[in-house]
């Protein structure tokens, strides 16, 4: 005997809630798609797809971070958007699970951040060291570290300017092979002079040489980025906590 199918007379989900969820997730869906597109475009510009040897430092690649972030945002936005519009319980369940996992990860990261401060400090140091070593190898990493040193923290190196000896171009011994940047630092370490509108890109040349004619503290930042980051976090703890709570 054939089974009769009963048509739903009304929606099982509140119409208001349905379109609120749909509207918010359309925004995040498009945002995730744009972020993913930017990451893929950055990899294409660097010819990463045709030269997989560049993936040795993939975790430190800003383009890779954009791809992962965009993919996660796109997936969550898609499941929430389609699930709410079609009232698909399977997609809505996946959407709820994704959000629960993200919330759990945020809470876990916050708790572990307070418990394992020294470990996080060590990981940040190792990451910054890798940025310095590969400063000239990846334009994205180069732009990121220049932004950190010049625009954000106003610092130089990890503990100080001498950390740039880790880079083959800025190492003092590189002068023997003709590196003009030997015993220097990137321009992002330099302090902006009074009434200077455009910074001289060669301002960091030779500043770590012992016979440098000027006082280096007047030319470049002496504070390391690790100390500067700690001071910034302590000074903006309320704002950082507010952003974390808003995201949660």
UniProtKB/TrEMBL annotation:
The membrane-topology field of this record reads: Multi-pass membrane protein
Q: Which residues form a coiled coil?
A: none
| Record has Transmembrane as a keyword | yes
| Predominant cellular place of this UniProt entry's protein | membrane
Residue pairs linked by disulfide bridges in the UniProt entry: 155-183, 156-172
GO annotation, cellular component aspect:
plasma membrane
Which superkingdom? Eukaryota
Which compartment or compartments is the protein found in? Membrane
The UniProt keywords, alphabetically, are: Disulfide bond, Membrane, Transmembrane, Transmembrane helix
- What are the TM regions of this chain, as residue ranges? 20-43, 63-85, 92-116
Q: Which family does it belong to?
A: Belongs to the tetraspanin (TM4SF) family.
Please identify the protein, giving its name as recorded: Tetraspanin
């Amino acid at each position: 005997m054939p089974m009769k199918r009963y048509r739903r007379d009304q929606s099982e989900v509140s119409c208001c809630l349905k379109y609120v969820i749909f509207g918010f997730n359309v925004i995040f869906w498009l945002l995730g798609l744009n972020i993913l597109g930017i990451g893929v475009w950055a990899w294409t510009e660097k010819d990463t797809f045709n030269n997989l040897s560049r993936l040795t430092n993939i975790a430190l690649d800003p383009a890779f971070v954009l791809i992962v972030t965009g993919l996660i945002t796109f997936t969550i936005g898609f499941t929430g958007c389609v699930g709410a519009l079609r009232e698909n319980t399977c997609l809505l369940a996946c959407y709820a699970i994704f959000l629960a996992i993200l919330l759990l990860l945020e809470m876990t990261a916050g708790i572990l951040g307070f418990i394992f401060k020294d470990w996080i400090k060590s990981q940040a140091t190792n990451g910054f060291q890798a940025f310095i070593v590969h400063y000239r190898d990846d334009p994205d990493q180069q732009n990121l570290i220049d932004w950190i040193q010049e625009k954000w923290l106003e610092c130089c190196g990890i503990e100080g300017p001498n950390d740039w000896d880790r880079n083959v171009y800025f190492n003092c011994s590189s002068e023997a092979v003709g590196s003009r940047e030997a015993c220097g630092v990137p321009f992002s370490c330099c302090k902006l002079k009074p009434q200077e509108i455009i910074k001289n890109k060669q301002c960091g040349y030779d500043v770590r040489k012992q016979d440098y004619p000027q006082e280096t503290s007047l030319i470049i930042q002496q504070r390391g980025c690790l100390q500067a980051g700690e001071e910034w976090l302590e000074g903006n703890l309320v704002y950082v906590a507010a952003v974390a709570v808003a995201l949660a």
